[in-house]
Every structure is written in structure tokens, then in C-alpha cells.
Amino acid sequence: MATVHGVAAEASYSIVVSKAARTLEVFDGVVRLNSYKIALGTSPVGSKQIEGDRKTPEGTYYVCSKNNKSRFYLSLGLSYPNADDAKRGLAAGLISEAQYKKILLANQRKQVPPWNTSLGGEIMIHGCGTASDWTWGCIALENADIETLYKIINVGTPVLIQK
Q1: C or N: which end of the chain has fewer Cβ atoms within 10 Å?
Q2: Whole-angstrom distance, CA of residue 1 vs CA of residue 122
Q3: For the residues 107-130, what does the mean pLDDT come to?
Q4: What domains does the chain contain, in order, with CATH numbers?
Q5: What is the reported pLDDT for 2?
Q6: In this structure, what DSSP letter does residue 39 have?
Q7: Which helix (H) or strand (E) holds 76?
Q8: Whole-angstrom Cα distance, residue 137 to residue 149?
Q9: Is residue 114 a contact partner of residue 106, using CB atoms and an 8 Å limit?
Q10: What's the average model confidence in pLDDT over 74-87?
């Protein structure tokens, strides 16, 4: 919790990921708190399109889950696919109308969207290192860095992933 003029106030954290710069920045309102080095999927150029393409998505998401027993140390689940991803997937015939509606509903309710469609899912911010791009589309941090984030980031925190 942040203090504003001596009065406790809920922190308004947000995360901005720059794929090109390989950084994850944490903001409290407009104040940048920290910047961390990251690693991406093994096919880092372009936005995630389908399951298995090893791309990290680009767009606006939110933290939809937290896992303190992750096989990648700690993890913050992201709300991929979002409404834009679902619209693209529906238009391309990658997902059904029912899957499209489930993704939209989960996003409206700030819940975990379906992660079992051909669009892929289970995109996380997690630990286990940043030496090279090695994930299947996730955003990897050093373990000490995800430990710091895990303590302050709540479910619902907005995440912007840029090229």
C-alpha cells in the first residue's frame, strides 16, 4: 500500500513490457518504480497467433492468476487471449463462436480466459532466468526479480506488452 500525503492508499500498479528493449517496467500510477531485464519466447518477433508458435503476445492484458508453486519458480498468469486476440482468432476460423464468447466473458469479469484453444494460453511472467530468449511465449525474469514482483502485484494489475 502506498502512502499519499500521510494517508494510506491502494497502489495503482501497472506493468509495461518492451519486447524490443527486453525490459519489464513497473509503475505506481505514473511513477516508474523499477525496470527489469527479461527473456521472451524463442520466436520473439511478432505477436502470438496460435498455440506453439513460441511468440510472446502483444497487447493489453491483466494479471489473472498467481502461482507460488510454479515449475518456473513463481508466476503471474496473463489474460491471453484477450478480446482482440479472440476477434482475430474467430475471423481466422481458429476458434469457435462459443470459445470467442467464453474469452470475452472471462475478460469482462477479469477472470482467467480459456487457455485450451488453438490460440494458445498459459502466458506467464515467471522466473528461471534471462540469459537468452528461451520460453514458449512467456516473459521470464531472474528469480529475485519475480520474487519482488510477486509480492506487490495483485490479480487484476494491467499489463501492456509492446513490440
Answers
A1: N
A2: 28
A3: 97
A4: 2-162 (2.40.440.10)
A5: 44
A6: B
A7: strand 75-78
A8: 19
A9: yes
A10: 98
